[in-house]
Structure prediction request, 262 residues.
Amino acid sequence: MNNIHPTAIIEDGAQLGDNVTVGPYSYVGPQVVLNDGVTLISHVWVGGDTTVGENTEISPFAVIGGKNQDLKDKEKKGKLIIGKNNSIREHATMQPGSPDGGNVTRVGDNGLFMIGTHIAHDCQVGNNVIMSNNATLAGHVKVGDRAIIGGLSAVHQFTRIGAHAMVGGMCGIARDVIPYSLISFNVLEGVNIVGLKRRGFSLETINTLRLAVGEIFNGDGTLSDRVAKVAETYRDCEPVQEIVTFMQTDYKRGFMHPKTAE
Prediction:
């Protein structure tokens, strides 16, 4: 049974699953799909061609599915697809895709998007992602599973954040962040050791990652030569191979480097 507050506005055409709660003064547009168990606490605006997955909870003053801010997109007909079990906190904004990015913005499952976070058009955000207060993604950003983006950090358009990476607070990320890494004060500090321990990675795997990352960003030859060498040296370590694949495909903006690297 759904729980719809009498002050809420639900436009004709909106689709609501079972056990949906739409709290006081919330708005649900005519193209919106709220799947089973979705909760709009109060004063939430959900519009555009937006789908919200099961058991996602959205806090007051969030604006979900509003027109994107891509000046080239005149039609504003993109989609926003949000997965299940997300917590979207106060004043967060998520915007639909544009023609240049396939017209779809996607957010995965089990994410926490804290107060004032922003996900722009055509972003592709994985599962179990955490964005801390006022962290922002520009258009076309890709964020891997279990990545964390610290408070007040901003990610440049078309940049990638690899899986299990940790971006510290108040960073400006203008280059790709490799998987399993730690970024602090706009510098690659190494491997996200604390995060990987918490997620059950063995000390052997963590140490192997530390060696591999060190060899990638230091030593003789070009960066591509060192990546290829690491791929061969650590061919039996799956996380290292994830880093190699990340660095050999789909890169547009280069990579965040250690401070000591050239």
